[in-house]
Amino acid sequence: MPLLSQYDLSGKTAILSSTGGDESPLLASVLAEAGATVFAVTRRQEQLDAILSALEGNGSSGGKHGGVAVPLVSDDAVSRAMAEFDRLDRPVDILVNDNRSLLAKPTGEITLSEWDELQSRNVRTAFLLSQAVGLRMIERESGRIVNLISGLAERGMMGGSAFSVSQAGLLALTRSLAVEWGRHNIRVNAIGVGWSISEDVPLEIQREEQLVRYTPLRRKGHPRDIGPLLVYLCSDACDYTTGQPIYIDGGLNAHP
Q: How confident is the model at residue 63 (pLDDT cuts 50, 70, 90)?
């Protein structure tokens, strides 16, 4: 995509954390295309492989990127990830938390272990990584943190109580860190997404689904819809925006 000079991420290093989802490889590629070195932190090795393959496939210099797969709900996961990141011998300028592991289940059927694991994956991991990275950013008086959240952070859905709570927690974390760390030149924002797919499905097929017809723009989202905003929020151009959820959801969140 065309890149304005003020959005250039050359010389910057980004940590991209993902608990799963099809968007992460493309998001990593977008950051790399803008000039950033990307270090991925994933829950499973196959997720990490997909991200690193995408970074190599888009023409980025694969040798400068890296990553680690760790069980993100374990007590030492973040310290292990940061120790591996330190092998790059670079400061961290950007943190992107993509923590949207899904649980769709009636509230009365959710077990305590399912609840705890989901909150750990989505909220605890983002908090611990933000804490570890944020302390480094505070020392340098500079940084950008972007949390990807679902539109269910501010809406309800049948069978979505556990997931919605985790996304609302990420939104609250975004706002709180923005208030606390703004004086250190750290901007913390969220990108809210709706129903998305990573494949290119013809519109006429998409519109056979009721939720697509309910979406004002009448199509599902694609990870490339997020890319330009992600680059902006990670760049120096994002200087007076912090604590904000910005929704790229085809208009879903505009519904009552």
A: low
